[in-house]
């Protein structure tokens, strides 16, 4: 504490008791020499309901703050006062509202999954740098028109909310690429939605639950390699974590996986679906031996872009072009049926190490049905075309050096056209190849 020379009253320094108590939750030493060096703070499941008002002064360079599984009922205004805070997570709290002052221009990545938020304040329009916005599992009935000012927004998750109408202002955003809106009322009237409710996955009862080598982990769950006890068949089993993921509900993912298998059967670029387990409803799929993701998921730094580590000679040009063509065909077929993948990224594309002509599109956790004849449906196609354009550009820069480079550049540009559809651009791509 320090004395105020003017009135002899005491004022709190940035390292006051409240801040020290907060830091102690993560065993950060109370005598740390320079709190200004702290850039990331992760405080999950600490029963927190508020943050100290001195946070911006105490931790002036804080850029990442994770507060998942606490007991906040409002996103507090002090969040907006932290001038360098770019990534914030309040997943799985008790949020009902967002204080208007919590939303400021510095925010790039905001995670509010699995709460009870009923509306977004108009100050969301201040978030002109916002790139990723996670809102699945809330109580939103509409989005404010101010969302139209979030012109850098690229990825949004709105699954399992209460949206009664398509969020048209959102879908008009020029850089939006990855959208998830399953489990909302306006989607229930999509042509395939009623049909999908009647489809049933085969039940497989010879899968040992929770056992097997871990093949991968994601926001939605864990995928393991498991051997069936009845016939020694090796399969991949995806077990879901909780009732709500950042992409949406596991029930929606199971329904989408079954519908995709029904509408686009025996496609070499899709993973074959076997059924679901009797106990937990885990998805049972074909096991892919010696496959790995083409890229890693976005990092805290890259935010919305995948991270590639493969060398430039990892894939031959002919293989790269074949991969682009096959995956574009799959997406074109899906959109013809009114199905949007919602998470078309290289980290969801699996490539066989032994034969790089073998490629699979995975993870339908963000997928959803939509009405392809409606205005919002055409806008949704534009968003996923942009996502494919990013992927095609990455492939072009990494693996292609010959004349095919110009063809891929034309594909990228076509994917960015406002009036484009998958069918139109796919036709153009085939003409370029011929």
TrEMBL record:
GO terms for cellular component: cytoplasm. ATP binds at residue 238. Residues 209-434 form the Protein kinase domain. It comes from the Eukaryota. Keywords: ATP-binding, Leucine-rich repeat, Nucleotide-binding, Repeat. The keyword Iron does not apply. InterPro entries: Kinase-like_dom_sf (IPR011009), Leu-rich_rpt (IPR001611), Leu-rich_rpt_typical-subtyp (IPR003591), LRR_dom_sf (IPR032675), LRR_domain-containing (IPR050216), Prot_kinase_dom (IPR000719), Protein_kinase_ATP_BS (IPR017441). This is Leucine rich repeat. GO terms for molecular function: ATP binding; protein kinase activity. The keyword Nucleotide-binding applies.
């Amino acid at each position: 504490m320090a004395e105020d020379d003017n009135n002899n009253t005491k004022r709190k320094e940035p390292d006051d008791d409240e801040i020290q108590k907060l830091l102690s939750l993560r065993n950060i030493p109370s005598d740390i020499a320079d709190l200004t060096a702290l850039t990331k703070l992760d405080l999950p499941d600490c029963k927190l309901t508020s943050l100290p008002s001195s946070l911006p002064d105490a931790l002036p360079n804080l850029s990442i703050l994770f507060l998942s599984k606490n007991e906040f009922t409002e996103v507090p205004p002090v969040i907006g006062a932290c001038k360098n805070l770019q990534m914030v997570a309040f997943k799985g709290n008790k949020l009902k509202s967002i204080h208007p002052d919590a939303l400021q221009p510095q925010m790039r990545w905001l995670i509010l999954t699995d709460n009870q938020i009923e509306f977004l304040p108009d100050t969301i329009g201040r978030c002109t740098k916002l790139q990723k916005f996670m809102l699945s599992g809330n109580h939103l009935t509409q989005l404010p028109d101010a969302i139209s000012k979030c012109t850098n927004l690229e990825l949004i998750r709105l699954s399992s909310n209460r949206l009664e109408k398509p969020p048209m202002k959102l879908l008009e955003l020029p850089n939006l690429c990855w959208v998830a809106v399953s489990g909302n009322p306006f989607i229930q009237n999509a042509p395939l939605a009623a049909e999908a409710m009647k489809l049933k996955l085969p039940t497989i009862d010879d899968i040992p639950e929770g056992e097997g080598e871990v093949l991968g982990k994601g926001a939605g769950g864990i995928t393991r390699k498991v051997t069936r006890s009845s016939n020694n068949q090796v399969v991949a089993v995806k077990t879901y974590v909780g009732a709500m993921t950042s992409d949406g509900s596991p029930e929606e993912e199971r329904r989408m996986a079954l519908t995709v298998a029904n509408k686009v059967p025996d496609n070499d670029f899709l993973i074959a679906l076997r059924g679901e387990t009797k106990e937990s409803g885990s998805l049972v799929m074909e096991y892919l031996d010696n496959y790995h993701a083409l890229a890693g998921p976005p990092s805290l730094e890259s935010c919305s872009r995948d991270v590639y580590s493969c060398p430039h000679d990892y894939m031959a040009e002919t293989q790269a072009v074949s991969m682009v063509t096959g995956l574009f065909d799959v997406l074109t077929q899906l959109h013809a049926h009114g199905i949007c993948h919602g998470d078309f990224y290289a980290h969801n594309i699996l490539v066989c190490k032994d034969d790089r002509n073998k490629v699979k599109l995975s993870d339908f956790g963000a997928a959803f049905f939509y009405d392809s004849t409606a205005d919002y449906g055409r806008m949704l196609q534009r968003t996923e075309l942009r996502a494919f354009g990013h992927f095609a550009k990455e492939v072009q820069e990494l693996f292609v050096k010959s004349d095919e480079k110009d063809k891929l550049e034309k594909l990228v540009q076509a994917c960015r056209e406002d009036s484009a559809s998958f069918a139109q651009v796919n036709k153009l791509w085939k003409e370029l190849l011929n």
